[in-house]
Structure formats: structure tokens, C-alpha cells
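STRUCTURE:
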């Protein structure tokens, strides 16, 4: 008889050695863990070699193909080269580039020698990149041409060493190939503490500048093993399990986000999945790639799954190899769930919620459950996480009561880099206070309804309202600014701004001014200009919610 999720979870943990459970003391607290999971990313990579043919394609990028053994060989050559450059355990090495196969090699080589990969947003401007290098302290950076050109203006001042790859310019920089050790070089194997950092990834929050999230080897490996565990439960929960088939995952989201690095890339290692990369998102090209490479899993932001469904419809395709169509980073509009399930009848439409701070682990839902509950975020991924819906005093609330979503597990970040107060505010008594507001029903399904955090989620990309406001205030004609989310049919949310001006200025002029300070995806797509002060609340603070409501109702200047 098919088992329930809880029954299957208990059975798998009790009978399958890969998923045996125990406890580990992490930052002073005993937490449940998979005791036989790899303890660091170097061990995860080595484990992957035991579950797939050495000569099978692993990385596919356009007309380039790399087997798993060849990838491990290049990782070893790069790791040995980094050691030869003098990179020490704990030292931070930045990666600033678009998605290329070398990104995966860099992640595993840097972390494999106990150093820390600083994965920097490739869309950032020179000013934003300057902040990230000041914050992280990285002195060595691997960059493609466009990112190298943005880094050069402050490279000498910060003493940066830039290693260039792929793109030809700037031509006088050191090249990636020059760092690689000789073919056949052995992978260095320094001791790695599971609770040491493997990466710093930047997450936009409410304080203006993005926060560097320090993620540990144990946190990443336990998150990967949690998804691996959950996917392994499937055959226990159906009457007639389908025959297993080769796995292939399509990556079209940027590798400086946890959606791409963790449940797409790192999870592909234990799943023995082929990892297929796209240079740039395009729905019709994605359809062709999925067909050509027999892709079984796709996970992107909700706009991508919507684009894919529209493209497949135009092209008359149903993509029968696709078994999972996931969306993360933002909420998929409820109406699209049934539409996409109809468009791809062989795939389970799925959704996930997680954060950089949790190594992307969190809540998920798929298939018939999701079609029946299209507004739900899902249930907690078993079996090592805990969930609490809390009031403002961090007390647990009963089911069906609105509160802040809090999670606790071995996958939580170590800290926000250089921000002890923000860390202490986010993690209290071992619980991560996510800033998202929601409720959980008696069956464990979580619905996210709002968020405390003052951010805009544009197509899965977090944008700090305060960061955009801070940039607007630099313009001499701007006296006050309030930034807020506005509806966007394709991206979910866009950036809107109400601005009190002291001199004539156009929206185009403001956008041109912002180009030197903010990445283009953070620019307001709609401005409301006025000469008088912005709306205020009872405490004389700018009332962002009231301003947003008035702007969308067109009750203020346009």
C-alpha cells in the first residue's frame, strides 16, 4: 500500500543507511542531521563519482560537453593551482561572472581546499561590486570580461588580483588557463571543518546594502541530502512506481543565487543528473534544449515556467521527458498551476520556498497536492527541519493563525558577514525569523500571505526598497522618496517610486541617473512625481503602504 509522506519518511530514515539520522552539535545546539551525508563539498563531489558512469556527460553548455571524471580532473587542477597561488583555508576568493561551466569548477575547487567562494551578483554595477569587495575582503577574483571591466576602477585601490576567463577583454589580465596545474594533478585534501564556511552569497534585505550570508559545508550538504531524501520517497508513496530513468536538469537561473547552486547544481551530484546550462533565458530555446537533452527537471523563477508553457504551446510541444516543473524565488500565480499542469501532462508542477539563509531548504509542494492547493507554499521538507509560526514575542501560534514563519535546522547560515546585530535579530534561540508572514493548517501546509521585510521580489530577484530610495536621494532634485512593489503580470512585482521633487525632472532623467548606482533590474518602472510632501502616518514617518495605495489608485501626481 502507498505510504503517506510521514510514513515514507520514517521508513526511509530507519531502513536506508544513506539517510540514517543522528544529531550534531552546531554552534552550541544539538540538531538532527543525516549522519552519513558528505561532510563537505569535496566529499560530495567525490561521492558523485560513485553513482554515475565516469564517461557520461555531466556538464552541457551549448556545444561543450564535459564528463564527470573530466570535471573532477579540472577541479583538481584548479584547486592545486589555487594552492600554488598561496590561497589558504578560510581565505575568500570571489567569483564574478555569468553562468559558464567554469563557475561550477570554481565553486568546488575553492571550497575543496577549505577556502571560501564569494559568489557575487553578476548584474551589479561598479558601485555595488565595490561594496561587495569591501565587505567580503576578497583579494583574488575570477571574472569574465564584462565583470572585470566593472571591477577594474577600484581594483588597484583594494589590491585585487583579477583572473580573467572566457571573454577576451581586458586583454592584459591573467587568464584562467594559466592558473590550472598540470593535467593529472591530485586534488589537495586539507582538513575541512564541516561547520566552516564554503561560500558567501549576497541577499538583499531591508537595510540598504545587501547582506553577505555565510554558508557552511554542513549546511549545504544537509540541504542537498534533504532534497535527495525527499525525492527518494516517491516510490514508497505511489501504487506502481515508474521505472527510473536517467536524470537531466536544466539550469537557466544565475549561479550567484541559491536556487541555481543548491537544488539545481549541487543536488544534481547525488541524483547522477546531467547538468544542462543555458547562456541566456529564452522560452523557445529552452523547449529545444529540453527536447535535445531529454531534460527531466526544470526549476526557475515563476516567470520562466510561464514563458516555457507559452513557448511550448506556440511550438506544439508537451515535453514528455519533463517529470518536474518547479518554481522558486517568488510565488507562482495560483491560476498558472492548473494551466502549466495541462501544458505539461507528464510533469509534476512544483513550487518551493527557501532562503539564502537556509541554504535554499524550506517548504515544497508538487503534483496533485499543488493543483488542489495552488495558493499554498507547501509542507516542510523532511526530516531535519522544524517550523514555527510565531507572534512578535517569538511564541508559537496555533494552526490557521497568521504569524512570522520561523525555521530551525542544521542548514541555517552561520551569520551575516560583518553584521552581528543583524545576525542576532535574524537568529534567536536557534530559530531563523524569516520576515515572511503566513499560517500553517492542521495537515502542515503553509500559506505565505505577506512579509515583514521591506523588499520587492521581481521575477525571483530581491530588491531592497531602502537601497533604491538611497540611490534616488542622491539626485539633487529629489527631496523625499518612497519605493514600493507594484503589480507586474509577468514578473510578479515591479519597482514603483513616489518622489517629492524640488526642481523639474523626468522619469527618464531619474533612470539615467540611477544607472551609475544601481543594477538596471532595481530601477523603478513607474514614478509618481509630486511637489508636496509624501503621505505620513501618526508618528510622522513616511507611510509606504498608504503611499502605494494612493499611487495605484492614481490619487497622487503621475
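SEQUENCE:
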Amino acid at each position: 500500500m502507498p505510504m503517506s509522506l510521514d510514513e515514507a519518511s520514517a521508513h526511509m530514515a530507519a531502513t536506508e543507511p544513506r539517510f540514517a539520522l543522528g544529531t550534531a552539535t552546531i554552534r552550541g545546539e544539538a540538531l538532527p542531521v543525516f549522519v552519513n551525508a558528505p561532510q563537505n563539498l569535496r566529499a560530495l563531489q567525490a561521492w558523485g563519482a560513485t553513482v554515475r558512469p565516469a564517461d557520461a556527460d555531466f556538464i552541457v553548455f551549448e556545444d561543450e560537453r564535459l564528463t564527470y571524471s573530466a570535471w573532477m580532473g579540472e577541479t583538481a587542477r584548479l584547486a592545486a593551482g589555487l594552492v600554488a597561488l598561496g590561497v589558504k583555508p578560510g581565505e575568500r576568493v570571489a567569483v564574478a561572472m555569468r553562468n559558464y561551466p567554469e563557475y561550477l569548477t570554481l565553486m568546488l575547487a575553492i571550497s575543496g581546499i577549505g577556502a571560501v567562494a564569494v559568489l557575487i551578483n553578476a548584474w551589479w554595477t561598479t558601485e555595488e561590486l565595490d561594496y561587495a569587495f569591501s565587505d567580503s575582503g576578497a583579494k583574488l577574483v575570477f571574472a569574465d570580461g564584462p565583470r572585470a571591466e566593472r571591477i577594474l576602477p577600484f581594483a588597484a585601490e583594494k589590491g585585487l588580483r583579477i583572473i580573467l576567463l572566457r571573454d577576451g577583454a581586458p586583454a592584459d589580465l591573467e587568464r584562467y588557463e594559466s592558473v590550472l596545474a598540470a593535467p593529472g594533478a591530485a586534488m589537495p585534501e586539507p582538513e575541512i571543518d564541516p561547520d566552516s564556511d564554503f561560500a558567501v552569497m549576497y541577499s538583499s534585505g531591508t537595510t540598504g546594502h545587501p547582506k553577505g550570508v555565510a554558508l557552511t559545508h554542513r549546511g549545504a550538504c544537509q540541504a542537498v541530502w534533504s532534497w535527495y531524501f525527499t525525492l527518494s520517497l516517491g516510490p514508497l508513496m505511489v501504487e506502481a512506481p515508474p521505472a527510473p530513468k536517467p536524470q537531466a536538469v536544466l539550469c537557466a537561473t544565475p549561479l550567484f543565487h541559491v536556487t541555481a547552486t543548491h537544488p539545481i547544481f549541487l543536488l544534481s551530484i547525488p541524483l547522477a543528473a546531467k547538468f544542462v546550462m543555458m547562456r541566456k533565458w529564452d522560452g523557445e530555446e529552452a523547449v529545444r534544449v529540453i527536447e535535445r537533452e531529454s531534460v527531466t527537471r526544470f526549476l526557475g523563477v515563476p516567470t520562466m515556467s510561464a514563458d516555457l508553457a507559452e513557448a511550448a504551446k506556440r511550438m506544439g510541444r508537451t515535453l514528455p521527458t519533463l517529470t518536474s516543473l518547479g518554481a522558486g524565488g517568488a510565488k507562482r500565480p495560483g491560476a498558472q498551476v492548473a494551466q502549466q499542469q495541462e501544458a505539461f501532462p507528464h510533469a509534476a508542477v512544483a513550487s518551493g520556498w527557501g532562503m539564502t539563509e537556509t541554504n535554499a531548504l524550506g517548504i515544497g509542494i508538487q503534483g496533485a497536492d499543488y493543483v488542489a492547493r495552488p495558493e499554498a507554499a507547501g509542507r516542510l521538507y523532511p526530516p531535519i527541519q522544524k517550523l514555527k509560526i510565531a507572534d512578535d514575542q517569538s511564541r508559537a501560534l496555533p494552526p490557521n493563525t497568521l504569524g512570522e514563519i520561523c525555521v530551525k535546522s542544521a542548514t541555517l547560515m552561520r551569520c551575516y558577514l560583518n553584521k552581528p546585530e543583524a545576525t542576532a535579530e535574524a537568529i534567536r534561540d536557534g530559530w531563523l525569523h524569516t520576515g515572511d508572514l503566513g499560517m500553517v493548517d492542521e495537515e502542515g501546509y503553509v500559506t505565505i500571505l505577506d512579509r515583514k521585510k521591506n523588499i520587492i521580489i521581481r521575477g525571483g530577484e530581491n530588491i531592497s526598497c531602502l537601497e533604491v530610495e538611497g540611490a534616488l536621494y542622491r539626485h539633487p532634485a529629489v527631496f523625499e522618496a518612497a519605493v514600493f512593489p507594484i503589480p507586474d503580470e509577468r514578473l510578479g512585482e515591479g519597482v514603483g517610486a513616489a518622489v517629492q521633487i524640488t526642481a523639474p525632472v523626468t522619469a527618464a532623467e531619474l533612470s539615467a541617473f540611477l544607472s551609475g548606482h544601481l543594477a538596471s533590474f532595481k530601477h523603478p518602472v513607474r514614478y509618481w512625481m509630486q511637489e508636496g510632501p509624501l503621505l505620513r502616518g501618526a508618528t510622522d514617518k513616511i507611510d509606504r503602504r498608504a503611499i502605494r495605495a494612493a499611487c495605484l489608485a492614481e490619487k497622487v501626481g503621475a
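REMARK: The domain at 455-552 is CATH 3.30.300.30 (GMP Synthetase; Chain A, domain 3).
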